[in-house]
Amino acid sequence: MEVVTAPKPWTSYILGQSSLFPILICILSQSYRIRADDGGMEELTTEKEAEESHRQDSVNLLTFILLLTLTILTIWLFKHRRVRFLHETGLAMIYGLLVGVILRYGIPSTSYHNKTPPSCSLKVGPVSTLLLNVSGKFFEYTLKGEINSREIHNVEQNDMLRKLTFDPEVFFNILLPPIIFHAGYSLKKRHFFRNLGSIITYAFLGTAISCFVIGNLMYGVVKLMQVLGQLTDKFYYTDCLFFGAIISATDPVTVLAIFNELHADGDLYALLFGESVMNDAVSFVLSSSIVAYQPTGANMHTFDASAFFKSVGIFLGIFSGSFAMGAVTGVVTALVTKFTKLHCFPLLETALFFLMSWSTFLLAEACGFTGVVAVLFCGITQAHYTYNNLSEESTKRCKQLFEVLHFLAENFIFSYMGLALFTFQNHVFSPIFIIGAFIAIFIGRALNIYPLSFLINLGRRHKISGNFQHMMMFAGLRGAMAFALAIRDTATYARQMMFTTTLLIVFFTVWVFGGGTTPMLSWLHIRLSGCLVHERLVSRAAVLCSGLESLQQQRRRACLNCGITSALFSTQTSLLLVCFYS
Amino acid sequence: MEVVTAPKPWTSYILGQSSLFPILICILSQSYRIRADDGGMEELTTEKEAEESHRQDSVNLLTFILLLTLTILTIWLFKHRRVRFLHETGLAMIYGLLVGVILRYGIPSTSYHNKTPPSCSLKVGPVSTLLLNVSGKFFEYTLKGEINSREIHNVEQNDMLRKLTFDPEVFFNILLPPIIFHAGYSLKKRHFFRNLGSIITYAFLGTAISCFVIGNLMYGVVKLMQVLGQLTDKFYYTDCLFFGAIISATDPVTVLAIFNELHADGDLYALLFGESVMNDAVSFVLSSSIVAYQPTGANMHTFDASAFFKSVGIFLGIFSGSFAMGAVTGVVTALVTKFTKLHCFPLLETALFFLMSWSTFLLAEACGFTGVVAVLFCGITQAHYTYNNLSEESTKRCKQLFEVLHFLAENFIFSYMGLALFTFQNHVFSPIFIIGAFIAIFIGRALNIYPLSFLINLGRRHKISGNFQHMMMFAGLRGAMAFALAIRDTATYARQMMFTTTLLIVFFTVWVFGGGTTPMLSWLHIRLSGCLVHERLVSRAAVLCSGLESLQQQRRRACLNCGITSALFSTQTSLLLVCFYS
Questions:
Q1: Tens of pLDDT along B245-304?
Q2: From start to end of B123-219, where are the E strands?
Q3: Which residue in B has a C-alpha nearest to residue A561's C-alpha?
Q4: Is the ipTM of this complex over 0.90?
Q5: Which of B6, B341, B397 is facing A400, going by the closest CB pair?
Q6: What is the pTM of this model?
Q7: A120 DSSP β-pair partners
């Protein structure tokens, strides 16, 4: 909609200003401003508001871009020095935390208004659009959300921090789709389909078990808190189950990255990756189903069989609908790329591939299915069918495009997580709940992995060894999905507590468990796969490449010929590998 | 901010629904909905609102994605059949128009509330944040903008159409940067710097002349309208100058695409491209300076020398500041890529390049400069310095990434233009103004090109021929920048009239002048450049490629070997070219 805005000339910043910290200057010096005058005090105010808002938006995005840039440079440094204890996602979180600290405690609150915002009373409930009548002129306001009565005085003062928080829907509409799609698109088909049964078992049964176990354990914890008088508001059983559902979404991105680099066993990789990707989808739909649980009668939180089965129906319906939608879009893309000669125009082909994949997500969301699940299966289908119809050029372009989008989106979310610890206004830190949650997820993971592995092994030829099971147990990191599901609705006390706890769980698991992956791999004697020698060479060559430079000072040639280099130096590489992995 | 939301299960759509038109179903059937109950009528309402809003957002984005997909498929078809009269941007506009018609007249208005939104009165002027007190619960509202008193009854009814309109800042923050950056990054350096003096003359002096001429002519038209009683509200001289500034931004993307394909003269290409890219920047800053013109005294629209010089100062200050910022960021990126070994990790290098280029834009905006100008000079600087430090892999990746972003953003804007003809609520169609504007831009362009070319030719060795001047005159298409500047602020009657007129000018110039480029090129006997044979072969090979398939039925091999194919078929190609261009 056409907001009343005007271009923003701030010549006072330019004329006579030379600053090394433009952002700080922009934030701190608000006194000089040249206003475009269209006539009327009201328009003056709205233009000023619009300018301020635009400037703030630019600063927000800039903060994140700087975070990501720092992360990238540090990642390079770590790769260069072969640091493995801290993966890029853990690093992004740390930078997010640092910036959060600076913003919270370093920058003085820039309150534009010195008073609490005006309020008006209405008998009718909150509507999405409200009109304000100021001397005959009408101004339109949109509903932002409910606000805690104790926070109303902080509305303006914490504007800076609040503006650095995004509408959670940004995660689900913009950031998660590339991540999930890339996950689906890059599932190594052979290993994935070979372990399909096990993966599905872990994803569905395992997540359900985990959700149930954690939910019940947390209910016990909540009851304990109630007895101890630690609970200041309502916390229902359904809330506990909801927590169980969202916290069951694992995201072992750190572990998998290390597996990839070290080329750990292909089956283990497939099991972990496949499980994490599928259980993200299952958690998502499960949490929706739990929220949709609506028993008849006055008490909304008793067990009602018909409501329960309705929820189960919702789960199955949404999941299969999303699956179908994703698969269909994947097939349609495959058909379009097969029967047109688009592959002669890589740009068009890549753009089309991108758009159709993204449209899956939106179509599913528009129809009430789950975009995340749809886009996952779309990615798997595209990898299976469309991939073969693309030209070589388009294949590379698509892969690179989604790779860079995935990279940026993932690190953005993890930076945001770090930031959210300080920018989120309604944290509820409850030590008992937090400790209880850590114990619960540990037990939940154990009761997920071990019993199911036993059952699965009855039907597998190639058993999942004890060590693999321990590794899977260990690799139950939480990440983007759990965070996004938790931040989605933080209106109530219970949800706020869950959000805070989820955040801390993510931090802990990513840093501690992620960092401990390499030692754990050696401790469990998990061997490398024997059939990935070439990939190993190429990956080592990149590291060699940076080393060679100082030796040969033929930087460009060495990297351009990474392929040739890896072949030439295969002996050295093998030696290096032997030294590294022994 | 954490909006009160809940996940959106719409099982009624799924259970027992099998529909081929899920979008229409979603739009039309709103009756069945399962609501998550967190307790309280107010939260129920906000959740319903949030669900509705999310679904609407998904449908909006989906509409645009489908538009873009249709555009891509049609572009392919046109390229396949070598249709040149309609370029992709013109095509995107047509599809936007079609969808706009369907939405405006085809779909019944889905008004969620059957009444005008409630309003409350305050003495104090509009604030950015307003609180609503409903029975002790507080809800926060943000200012959307001023609304015409006659429109308040239409607020909900036209919700659908209004939601398909974006905040104009989306254009400036998300869509224009990739387009402008790509323009700067792909300026063919040799030709650009060879014609730098001419380009700068056209861009600065030419735009100023054009602005002044058009502004004055339009003022005459407005006076005429006033005499004839056609003017219903205020329309100042500064408004006319503003119109002159925004409509001086040319965007000959269609013409240039055809030049590229047919490999028209390199100097002409450089002059047109360079001029259009630079005059976008100049128009932008010029329009800002005009808006910033703020004479002292009661009458805001008389000539005031000090205010005038202040505006000039603003122009120079913003332009040079943005230039400096863009150039500095480009150089910093160059230094970072030079002194790190990032080129061994193409993904990191590409991501960094992308982020630093984008940060230029935001940094400039945050500091009150012009992001568009900054990002343009950043692109030029990156092409000049950073390009040489990237690895070959990264070079390709960056080029392809920006190419696809540019492609999507540009077609999105042009689709949106088509749509805006029907979704914009406040059009002011004034035949006199429109006809006057067409005449004015024609005269303005003529008084820009011909006198300046004469002056420039006095200093050039390689004169700009008369035919080149006619072509440049002809190629004064308007596009994305003019549209974006016009839509930015449509609060007043004058601005609304200007927006409507700009839209029509863009349509006409893109379709008519864009379509007439190829005939015009032959009519003016503008020859092809002699030194681009290889590029020509590669481009022909793509067309040949699709032709060869039916001959050889070795689709994949033919395209993969496009390079070999072009060499093998060089004789055929030359023959084809001779036939085509004679």
A1: 999 999 888 888 888 777 777 888 888 888 998 889 899 889 988 888 866 655 556 677
A2: 129-134, 137-147
A3: B392
A4: no
A5: B397
A6: 0.78
A7: B132
